[in-house]
Amino acid sequence: MFCSTAPDPYSVRRSLPQHSLLTLIRTLVITKLDQCNSVLVGTSVYLQDRLQSVQNAAARLVYSRRTLEHTTPLLRELHWLRVPERIQFRLCVLAYHCVHGTAPAYLSDSLRPTSEIVGRRCLRSADTMTLQVPSTRRATLGDRAFPVAAARAWNSLPLETRACSSLLTFRRETKSHIFRQSYG
Question: Any idea where the domains of the chain sit in the sequence?
Fold first, then answer.
């Protein structure tokens, strides 16, 4: 016989150990939140809040907390970035791939290092590994474009992080930097 209602998530919580539940949530929920989330840069707070509520529910499920309990301590303990910070993290990783030539050409060609700008070659800022942020006419649409959003996210990182030689080190340093900024 088929059940017409969805199973209670807390009944799943009671039947699994916490580490198994965490693995399940990372696999089924967090990966879906991260899938193509860099295209969500500049979307409305309302849409980002809807995604954040999914992440908050997942954190509450891991720790068996009630709906009204605050999730910031839970997210901090799980070392999960909030949705806007996850978007920024993904943009930074894409920018890293573009800078190091491992991204598709259509993305890499859209980002331009400031050291390639003719008037800046002799300035000290040419050695900071920053990207040129193209000017836009419309803040609503232009700021969401990949060259603008990725360059701003990349330039917001510390020089030591931008200078990382391996992707694994870059990801770890970037997440730590964004995590410290977010949860301070």
Answer: 9-80, 85-183
